[in-house]
């Protein structure tokens, strides 16, 4: 539903971009990349807006900002907390610099923008509201039910209070070690799922803020809190030892409900020992495996004021899990899409198989009726065995159950026997397409009884690809499915077997993510997770967050380069250097550590080209390329932050690494790297290690290698990241497209032809290991379609698409291709189609930006714009606006 809305929105924007002459507007106002957020802790929050003006050459020439606590004043053009002058500037990302922001305060803001015609355009009034701002503003205690960490049932907490005065507004601030659902007077608050997002609980905890004004009533009120284990109290046992995490504890929370009355007075109702607790019908919950629910234990009305809680127990005060409790300023996880079952098959008496028709991350919701005490098991799987039953053999391999009470990805629902009953897990999610439902007694069930919910961080879709090749279109959508299936407040490797924040998978997929989704808030939070994990000597674990596992394995630069690559990509896509600045010292410590360990400049630290087809490249080869990339990013960041000494030091270090690498691996006579495998020729090209004068030769060798490999991939994840771009950036887009559109093994298309709706972990769909059906680590193709065919690229010198590079490739085999991306300045469109002997290329460059257009030379053809011949043999600059080129 939400998905189709955002598609509609994209379409509307797309149509709007053709509607010349519409009145210019200023829209898209965001604070910290969120629309009208509440509970912001940032002292200088970032304010952004978009000039919507489809006139050619449209630009912002000046802006003025107004911020204040009085909405009427702000809307009349007075900001009593901050009012800038009219500033001559085209910036649309500004840090708040007014009077110090107070906690618990609503600020109104608007911006006035002047276009290049000198006319001013006023935005609407937007809002941001501060939260705790400082941890000393918390009043509540951290409380828990004092049960053992091995207690399986999830606890309820309740508290009642009365309000005599008239309520003007009310906010809840809740910090949780574990997961929670919050209720006021029986109503669930908000539609977030699996809140708060996973962090290293013993280093940093997140709190969530809600406006609960409408849920409170005068007189008696009840607050209810249900706590789940999440990653805080991991009871399931697997090879990563999360059951031994240093932070592990019985779930706990701290809550402040701050009520403001119409007379201006405030009152804070807090978590303390007046609260009461009891066990809930959730008799087991594991973020990793599943949830078990016994409806016979339900206590109707437990979260309402009139409930009789005499049988409930007292709570204890306990210590906060860490000294740092900060706002969760990010898009939450939601049930983003509901997916009805496509089919239901009866496999045997009381055994039914539901098929959603596509592989997702999330949960299933079931409604059935049956006798009290009937035990229903919902086994979730990505594939079926030969007999048509759910088969988990590809995903349960690292699970180490200690008994049979916690079956993998299998919810257990015990009926209360009161007619139609429903169940959906609250504190777990899974990766699945199929649900095998079995019961120990007959139940009434049909195809409509089960619905799947696709859950993930609810980030806006901002990219669109379409083409004349259906396989390519399906690859793009499968890539997005896997990207989202692995986006849960931190990027993961897979939604079933691990749910681990594997660093390598995430930096490989970050561009794919940023072209397609507005994910900056998730990445910024995840980089803070990195800072929590980094050792004093600079070392990072291979998974973030981590319980300690991953410092000893898999954490070389080919994986943990996230520390540099992700901040850099955020800078390229959003034009925002904050994450780079926040991580600057961390990147430095990281590369310094590698420099100390590997003074030659060559490093063997890493996993290498993971899950390759057949050829295996040296670990030193790929790890050194990532080490070089990190040092180069650091050198560029140093220049950006005017740190001359660092700039000189890391520019020299980058050069040293590159020289050592080329001295060892490059044959300067032949342009061949090492044994000349695909990965060995692609990686240095993609990561800019090839001497300028050798690029042509190396690229030609790569194209030759691919031809010899019959235009099929021979690469693992690091090679697959590099090869398409290495070819298309160096004159071989046609070769890249042949690989990308391949439909036989090994290729992305091979998965699609075999029914994939998500990306797999292994090229070989018959593989005995490493065969999750929902991995994003081969997902670079989702970015390459924008870069290599649509040609929409970031410009490092003018990031945030201030200047767009438009370098399309009219590859043989496609008759049309459409790509669009909504960047921080608006919608960028790059579409081309063949029309007889003519290629029509249409572009939209958003207001306030420009484009450098580089069109491929088409033999015997010339380029026309608005019917006039133009000189297009060299790249040319174009101002904002919509343009139709003809190549004929
Ligand atoms: C994960 C990968 C990860 C790899 C590291 C696997 O188990 O699923 O995606 O990058 O380990 O080697």
From TrEMBL:
Keywords: Hydrolase, Signal. It comes from the Bacteria. Residues 165-336 form the Bacterial alpha-L-rhamnosidase N-terminal domain. It holds the Pfam family Bac_rhamnosid. It is an enzyme of class 3 (hydrolase). One of its GO terms (biological process) is carbohydrate metabolic process. Residues 1-21 form the signal peptide. GO terms for molecular function: alpha-L-rhamnosidase activity. Its EC number is 3.2.1.40. It catalyses: Hydrolysis of terminal non-reducing alpha-L-rhamnose residues in alpha-L-rhamnosides. This is alpha-L-rhamnosidase. It comes from Mucilaginibacter mali.
């Amino acid at each position: 539903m939400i998905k189709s809305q955002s598609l509609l929105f994209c379409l509307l924007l797309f149509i709007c971009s053709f509607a010349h002459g519409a009145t210019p507007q200023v829209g898209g106002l965001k604070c910290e990349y969120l629309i009208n957020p509440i509970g912001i802790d940032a002292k200088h929050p970032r304010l952004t807006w978009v000039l919507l003006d489809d006139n050619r050459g449209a630009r912002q020439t000046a802006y003025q900002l107004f911020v204040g606590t009085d909405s009427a004043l702000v809307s009349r053009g007075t900001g009593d907390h901050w009012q800038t002058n009219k500033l001559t500037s085209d910036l649309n990302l500004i840090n708040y610099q007014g009077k110090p922001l107070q906690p618990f305060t609503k600020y109104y803001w608007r911006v006035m923008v002047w276009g290049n015609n000198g006319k001013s355009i006023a935005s609407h009034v937007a809002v941001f509201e501060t939260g705790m701002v400082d941890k000393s503003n918390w009043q509540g205690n951290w409380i828990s039910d004092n049960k053992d960490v091995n207690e399986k049932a999830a606890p309820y907490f309740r508290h009642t209070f009365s309000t005599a005065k008239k309520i003007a507004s009310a906010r809840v601030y809740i910090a949780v070690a574990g997961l929670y659902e919050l209720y006021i007077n029986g109503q669930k608050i908000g539609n977030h799922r699996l809140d708060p997002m996973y962090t290293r609980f013993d280093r940093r905890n997140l709190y969530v803020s809600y406006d609960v004004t409408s849920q409170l009533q005068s007189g008696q009120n009840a607050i209810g809190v249900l706590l789940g284990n999440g990653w805080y109290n991991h009871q399931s046992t697997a090879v990563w030892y999360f059951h031994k995490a240093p932070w592990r504890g019985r779930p706990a929370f701290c809550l402040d409900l701050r009520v403001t009355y119409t007379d201006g007075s405030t009152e804070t109702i807090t978590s303390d020992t007046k609260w009461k607790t009891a066990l809930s019908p959730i008799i087991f919950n594991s973020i990793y495996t599943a949830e078990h629910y016994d409806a016979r234990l339900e206590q109707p009305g437990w979260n309402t004021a009139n409930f009789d809680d005499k049988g409930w127990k007292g709570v204890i005060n306990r210590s906060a899990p860490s000294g740092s409790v900060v706002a969760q300023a990010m898009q939450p996880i939601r049930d983003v899409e509901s997916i009805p079952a496509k089919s239901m098959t009866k496999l045997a008496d009381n055994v039914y198989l539901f098929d959603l028709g596509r592989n997702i991350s999330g949960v299933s919701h079931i409604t059935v009726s049956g006798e009290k005490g009937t035990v229903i098991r919902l086994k979730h799987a990505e594939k079926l065995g030969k007999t048509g039953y759910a088969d988990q053999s590809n995903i349960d391999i690292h699970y180490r159950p200690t008994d049979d009470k916690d079956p993998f990805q299998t919810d257990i629902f015990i009926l209360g026997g009161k007619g139609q009953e429903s169940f959906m897990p609250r504190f777990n999610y899974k990766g699945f397409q199929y649900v095998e439902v079995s019961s120990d007694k007959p139940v009434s069930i049909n195809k409509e009884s089960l619905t799947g919910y696709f859950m993930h961080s609810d980030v806006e879709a901002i990219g669109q690809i379409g083409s004349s090749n259906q396989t390519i279109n399906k690859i793009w959508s499968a890539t997005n499915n896997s990207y989202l299936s692995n986006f849960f407040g931190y990027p993961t490797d897979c939604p079933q077997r691990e749910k681990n924040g594997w660093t390598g998978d995430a930096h490989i997929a970050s561009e794919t993510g940023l072209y397609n989704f507005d994910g900056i808030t998730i990445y910024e939070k995840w980089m803070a997770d990195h800072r929590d994990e980094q050792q004093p000597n600079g070392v990072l674990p291979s998974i973030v967050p981590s319980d300690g596992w991953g410092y000893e394995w898999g954490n070389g630069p080919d994986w943990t380069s996230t520390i540099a690559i992700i901040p850099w990509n955020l800078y390229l896509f959003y034009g925002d250097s904050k994450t780079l600045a926040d991580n600057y010292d961390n990147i430095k410590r990281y590369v310094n550590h590698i420099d100390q360990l590997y003074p030659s400049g060559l490093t063997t630290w890493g996993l290498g080209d993971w899950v390759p087809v057949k050829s295996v490249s040296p670990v030193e080869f790929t790890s050194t390329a990532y080490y070089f990339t990190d040092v180069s990013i650091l050198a560029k960041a140093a220049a950006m932050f005017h740190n001359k000494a660092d700039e000189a030091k890391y520019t020299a270090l980058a050069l040293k690494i590159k020289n050592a690498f080329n001295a060892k691996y490059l044959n300067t006579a032949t342009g061949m790297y090492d044994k000349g495998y695909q990965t060995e020729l692609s990686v240095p090209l993609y990561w800019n290690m090839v001497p300028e004068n050798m690029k042509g030769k190396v690229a030609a060798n790569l194209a030759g290698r691919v031809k010899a490999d019959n235009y099929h991939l021979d690469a693992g994840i690091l090679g697959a990241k590099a090869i398409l771009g290495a070819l298309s950036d160096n004159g071989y887009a046609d070769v890249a497209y042949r690989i990308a559109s391949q439909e036989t093994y090994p290729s992305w298309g091979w998965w699609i032809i075999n029914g994939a709706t998500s990306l797999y972990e292994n090229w070989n769909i018959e593989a005995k290991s490493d065969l999750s059906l929902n991995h994003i680590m081969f997902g670079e193709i989702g970015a390459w379609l924008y870069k290599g065919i649509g040609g929409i690229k970031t410009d490092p010198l003018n990031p945030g698409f201030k200047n767009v590079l438009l370098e399309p490739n009219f590859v043989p085999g496609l008759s049309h291709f459409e790509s669009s991306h909504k960047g921080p300045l608006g919608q960028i469109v790059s579409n081309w189609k063949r029309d007889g002997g003519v290629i029509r290329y249409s572009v939209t460059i958003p207001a306030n930006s420009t484009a450098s257009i580089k069109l491929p030379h088409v033999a015997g053809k010339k380029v026309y714009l608005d019917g006039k011949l133009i000189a297009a043999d060299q790249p040319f600059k174009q101002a904002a606006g919509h343009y139709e080129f003809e190549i004929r």
